[in-house]
Specification:
By secondary structure, this protein is of the alpha+beta class. The protein has helices at residues 43-59, 80-97, 148-160, 169-175, 178-185, 191-200, 213-224, 239-248, 252-258, 271-283, and strands at 21-31, 64-75, 100-109, 114-124, 139-142, 203-208, 227-231, 265-269, 289-295, 300-306, 319-323. ATP binds at residues 87, 104-105, 131, 210.
């Protein structure tokens, strides 16, 4: 009803097609040298990602992102053109996901750029999907490949070699890592998939993969009081990531479990509806990978590895279970 230009925005409360709606709110902050630097991301990429991270949080509740407030603290050395490019990326993401930027704040910063975005969304009353609903027997799924963003960051840091010039996408294309770099710079939240899955009524928990698959799986396990058993062979492995991992001498599983910033969804769904849900998403060109099951037991996350492998005991010739550490990206470690 009233956007940027007054002391506050005024929005009309939306009406749901299938009943009353509830507001869903999320906030995320990106800080230069913590989340990005000049070598890894251009200004427009920073703007895109700052909004996309919040859009993904709304999707993880089964909601629809609607409005955004953007607070930017800009170093005095920045020229206006750089700030415009930041907002170009942010508005491009907003257009992609139907978000209206309705206000915010701009201040100076002593040294680093800080971008804080708050997104307001809606969800049908009583239908928000939480982390705490997983039940034994459910299937565990993700809505896209994992580990690509971490691999892209690894390439960018290596290509930059400590320099401050942004690594061009052409360099990534030449190295066969363009998809990895784009996954890091411009993640694509699973909004459509989330809405389709939530509407089925069989999804019992959702979480977005921001800090790493293992960390998010632990959050669901602890919130729901269950054990998540993930099968290594079913984790979606990108071909370009596998090729880059081989060249780099790094096990791709490390990026997949602990890399983070993929912004796909991790969730659980009633096993009886898993195949039909996957088919429904596939019909819309949306991926859904079944990667494990929910089991009874103490809260935890295990990885099922299939064998035999060198060094395995005879008892573990076919498969073995490995407890996954509760770790991912942590600002304070």
């Amino acid at each position: 009803m009233l956007g940027i230009g007054d002391d506050a925005a005024v929005v009309e409360a939306p009406r749901g097609e299938s009943g009353a709606l509830q507001w869903v709110l999320a906030v995320d902050t990106m800080v230069e040298t913590v989340h990005f630097n000049a070598a890894t991301m251009a200004e427009a990429d920073v703007g895109w990602k700052a909004l996309a991270a919040n859009v993904s949080d709304i999707a993880a509740m089964g909601g629809v992102p609607r409005h955004a407030l953007v607070s930017v603290s800009v170093p005095r050395a920045w020229e206006p053109a750089r700030i415009r490019r930041l907002y170009d990326g942010l508005y491009a993401c907003a257009e992609r996901y139907g978000v209206a930027v309705v206000g915010g704040d701009t201040t100076s910063s002593p040294a680093q750029l800080v971008v804080a975005v708050t997104v307001v969304g809606t969800v049908t009353a009583g239908k928000a999907v939480r982390r705490s609903g997983a039940m034994p027997g459910d299937a565990v799924f993700v809505t896209g490949p994992i580990g690509m963003a971490a691999a892209g960051l690894h390439f960018l840091l290596a290509a930059a070699g400590g320099g401050e010039q942004c690594v061009p996408l052409a360099a990534a294309e030449a190295a066969g890592t363009a998809a990895l770099v784009q996954a890091h710079r411009r993640p694509a939240p699973s909004v459509r998939a989330a809405r389709m899955l939530a509407a089925r009524g069989t999804v019992t928990s959702l979480n977005d993969v921001s800090d790493g698959l293992a960390s998010e799986a632990w959050e669901i396990a602890e919130s729901s009081g269950v054990k998540l058993a993930l099968r290594e062979s079913q984790l979606p492995l990108s071909g370009s990531m596998a090729a880059y991992a081989r060249r780099s001498g790094i096990a791709p599983l490390e990026w997949m479990l602990y890399g983070g910033e993929d912004y796909v969804l991790l969730g659980t769904i009633a096993a009886k509806d898993a195949a039909e849900a996957k088919a429904a998403l596939a019909a819309e060109g949306l991926p859904m990978y079944m990667i494990g099951t929910v089991e009874e037991g103490n809260a935890g996350v295990e990885l099922i590895q299939e064998g035999p492998h060198s060094g395995w005991s005879q008892a573990a010739a076919k498969e073995r279970r490995v407890s996954l550490a509760k770790r991912g990206y942590n600002h304070f470690e």
